[in-house]
């Protein structure tokens, strides 16, 4: 393999990992919400997009990336809290179709608001000056500093989630809730508070990802449905309620997205949805999902 081909290969791997880490931030919240509340929250992609636009607006007004990040995370966390308290809570006991229609309707409402307020032109969040430019990795490989940081942040958050999930009381409550929410209620845990906190936390993660992805993916109407579609694939492949599955699934989907678009763009959707179809056929619960039958 020549030097140019090797550089391109490494670049596509890094592209896949950086995109995969963004997807992990969204899908990790989505899989816990789905596993704990039995609600497939299709509004999650809209929180990603809304967070990106909030960050763009704050940065344009102040010029500060860190302030834009904070406002986006807090704003979408509050929005997710309102959605859960006023809307989701009414449908926890009922038809799943109603839950899907509610979250889909909210996604369209937020998407139309974004289009009305910010317009249809793509916008870009500017990364901090220290993270602009590229870094030489040796062997003729040069890669943007900012995307390398995204990979590092994603890995660090995944490690933090692992510690919280496996070694803290909060993690034990969430794991128990994913397996049997009724048992958790019987033990005296205020499950409503847990639901609200998880949903708000998922919204914060989505906005965090939307802000971090702004400098290289941009923000534009329609991105919300692209993100939620890939996140649902990750949840299905990894298994509902599994953070390990979400992490590994995000890496796989990110790499498939990068390589398929680079080498055979005509079959890019087949490359991503093909594994999901195979897994559903042979292991319907996903790679790391628990069988609740």
TrEMBL record:
Keyword Hydrolase tagged: no
An annotated GO cellular component: plasma membrane
Compartment(s): Cell membrane
Membrane topology type: Multi-pass membrane protein
Alphabetized Pfam families for the sequence: BPD_transp_2
Residue intervals passing through the bilayer: 12-32, 39-59, 65-83, 95-118, 146-166, 187-208, 228-256, 263-282
Keywords: Amino-acid transport, Cell membrane, Membrane, Transmembrane, Transmembrane helix, Transport
UniProt keyword Cell membrane present: yes
Gene Ontology biological process: amino acid transport
GO molecular function: transmembrane transporter activity
Family: Belongs to the binding-protein-dependent transport system permease family. LivHM subfamily.
Name of this chain's protein: Branched-chain amino acid ABC transporter permease
Organism expressing this protein natively: Tectimicrobiota bacterium
């Amino acid at each position: 393999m020549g030097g140019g081909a090797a550089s391109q290969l490494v670049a596509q791997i890094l592209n896949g990992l950086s995109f995969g880490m963004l997807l992990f931030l969204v899908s990790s919240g989505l899989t816990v919400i789905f596993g704990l509340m039995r609600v497939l929250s299709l509004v999650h992609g809209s929180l990603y997009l809304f967070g990106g636009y909030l960050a763009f607006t704050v940065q344009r007004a102040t010029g500060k990336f860190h302030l834009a990040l904070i406002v986006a995370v807090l704003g979408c966390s509050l929005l997710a809290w309102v959605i859960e308290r006023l809307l989701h809570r009414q449908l926890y006991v009922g038809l799943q179709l109603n839950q899907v229609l509610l979250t889909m309707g909210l996604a369209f409402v937020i998407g139309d608001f974004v289009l009305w307020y910010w317009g249809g032109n793509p916008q870009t969040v500017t990364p901090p000056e220290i993270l602009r430019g590229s870094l030489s990795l040796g062997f003729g490989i040069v890669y943007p500093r900012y995307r390398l940081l995204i990979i590092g942040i994603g890995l660090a958050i995944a490690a933090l989630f692992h510690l919280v999930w496996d070694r803290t009381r909060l993690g034990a409550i969430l794991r128990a809730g994913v397996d049997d929410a009724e048992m958790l209620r019987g033990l005296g845990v205020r499950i409503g508070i847990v639901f609200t906190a998880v949903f708000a936390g998922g919204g914060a993660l989505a906005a965090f990802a939307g802000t971090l992805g702004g400098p290289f993916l941009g923000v534009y109407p329609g991105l919300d449905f692209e993100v939620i579609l890939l996140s649902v694939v990750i949840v299905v492949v990894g298994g509902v309620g599994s953070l390990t599955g979400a992490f590994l699934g995000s890496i796989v989907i990110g790499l498939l997205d990068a390589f398929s678009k680079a080498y055979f763009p005509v079959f890019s959707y087949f490359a991503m949805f093909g594994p999901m179809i195979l897994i559903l056929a042979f292991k319907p619960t996903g790679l790391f999902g628990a069988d609740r039958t």
